[in-house]
Amino acid sequence: MTFDISGEARYVTDGGLETDLIYHHGLDLPGFASFPLLEHATGRDHLTSYYDGYAAIADRAGAGLLLESPTWRANPDWGATLGYDPAALDRINRTAIEFLRQFRQRWTGIDHVALSGVIGPRGDGYVAGERPETAEAARYHRPQIEAFAAAGADLAHAMTMTTAAEAAGIVRAARDAGLPVAISFTVETDGRLPDGTALGAAIDETADAGPVAYFGVNCAHPDHIAHGLDASATRMIAALRPNASRLTHAELDAAEELDEGDIPDLRVTLDSIRRDLPALRIVGGCCGTDARHVAALWDAR
């Protein structure tokens, strides 16, 4: 399909994949990586059951479904810690899109089902670390994007971006690969990126690098996102995947138990910023959320 966020279709997407599988299903995910589940039947069954929950929400809500691949950690640095060389990463990133394509056939009654290849940051999703060079970021992320394109993804989606420079590199790589790309930044409690950049400024800098299908914010509570909603952000943000937890990233990183937040509070606080985002079309969740949270956000319980 052709994915066009400028149309009228609204899209349900999923919640906190890794936290759901770890804390609710007892899975061990070394490196916080879910892509190795694609390697065996039991893992694929877990993923199928997980995505089924969100497809059912989209069906009940009369919305489209944005299927996001379990590949947030499937890049060279993180992959190497799990024994994946470049050839193995290329294979698993293609497999992820092929898996989603097969899954799409389970829900043919949903009018719009798009396949998104997920890209994570090179480093930690909660810490900016050393500011990358845009050209180096493009080189680093290009193989994953090319694998998504070869496998037939509708778009790539870089999530939990902590710097505009890395996001801009991903946009350049996607442009070279001929694949539409979306960018979702994460923000701290003050509404700024982990490196201190204002959300709107990061969006503007990234947009200068090339075409972006849409911008979003993930892995932050709606109240935290609200602090970053300047003119550029309110005009451009089309996707939100919030946390229900109000904890800081540092607190979440150190937590030994899952903070699922308060579902009614999540709904109220998201609704409080929804009216300020005229382009918003995609809503899901992030760390600590599951199908219960997303169903509440769509009033599809």
From TrEMBL:
Name of this chain's protein: Homocysteine S-methyltransferase
Domain Hcy-binding: 1-301
SUPFAM superfamilies with a match to the protein in the record: Homocysteine S-methyltransferase (SSF82282)
Lineage of the organism: Bacteria, Bacillati, Actinomycetota, Actinomycetes, Micromonosporales
Source species, domain of life: Bacteria
Residues that, per the record, bind Zn(2+): 219, 286-287
Listed InterPro entries: HCY_dom (IPR003726), HCY_dom_sf (IPR036589)
Protein EC: 2.1.1.10
Pfam families assigned to the protein according to its UniProt record, in alphabetical order: S-methyl_trans (PF02574)
Keywords, alphabetical: Metal-binding, Methyltransferase, Transferase, Zinc
Class of enzymatic activity (EC top level): transferase
Gene Ontology annotations of biological process type: methylation
Single GO molecular function: methyltransferase activity
Known cofactor(s): Zn(2+)
